[in-house]
Amino acid sequence: MPLAHRERIDWHDHASHQLIHPHRGVLRISTPIGDWVVPPHRGVWIPAGVAHAHEAYGPTEMRALVFDPWVNPLRLDRPTVLAITPLLREVVVALTGDDEPTASRRANLERVLLDQLREVEALPLCLPTPSDPRLRDVAAILEADPADGRTLAELGAVVGASERTLSRLFRAETGMSFPQWRTQLRLHRALILLAGGRSVTSTAAACGYSGPSAFIQSFKHAFGTTPHAYVRG
């Protein structure tokens, strides 16, 4: 399914589990509890019944497979970004391509698919959505400008809460410290900007890094590859 840059599929859910794979481009999956950014050559498992919306960044080709509610090889109960192996990628392409496989070939491909899914690695690409109004205000400020370098104390003065209160709430509601949450936000935005064709240097500045080297180091630590390699796919 081709999606144009910034094309959106509004809120919906499914009675079945889904595996969504952007063969190219980047997808942002939004749910009531958080957002997941899905880079190219990765996948996202969306459990049955979870309300979600999609937004594409860069020209995107989205492929989707459905699974019966009782088929859950990773026993996941929330959306999770997965590392898609080359073999798994080819199986997804074969099952979602224009040429419909025969029944026996489809059965064989589906067996391989399930075997591969049991072995894949879950990737830390979730940005939890806080529920406290003060945290939501902080999140909105930083979503609007990820390069905003104000401290938590300075942001607290804007939203009417102390640094200590906000720090405690971030850990309680997101499972992350404030610096960890802000880093995840910046990395999410970096994936989106790179998919839209921005340079590494421009992306680093837009996301609040001191320079390209600091950005590359943070990106590689999170994703195991450099921004240049990521862009090349």
From TrEMBL:
PROSITE patterns: HTH_ARAC_FAMILY_1, HTH_ARAC_FAMILY_2
InterPro entries recorded: Homeodomain-like_sf, HTH_AraC, HTH_AraC-typ_CS, RmlC-like_jellyroll, RmlC_Cupin_sf
Any Pfam family: HTH_18
Record keywords, A-Z: DNA-binding, Repressor, Transcription, Transcription regulation
Gene Ontology MF, one: sequence-specific DNA binding
UniProt xrefs under PANTHER family: HTH-TYPE TRANSCRIPTIONAL REGULATOR NIMR
Name of the featured protein: HTH-type transcriptional regulator RipA
Species the sequence originates in: Microbispora rosea
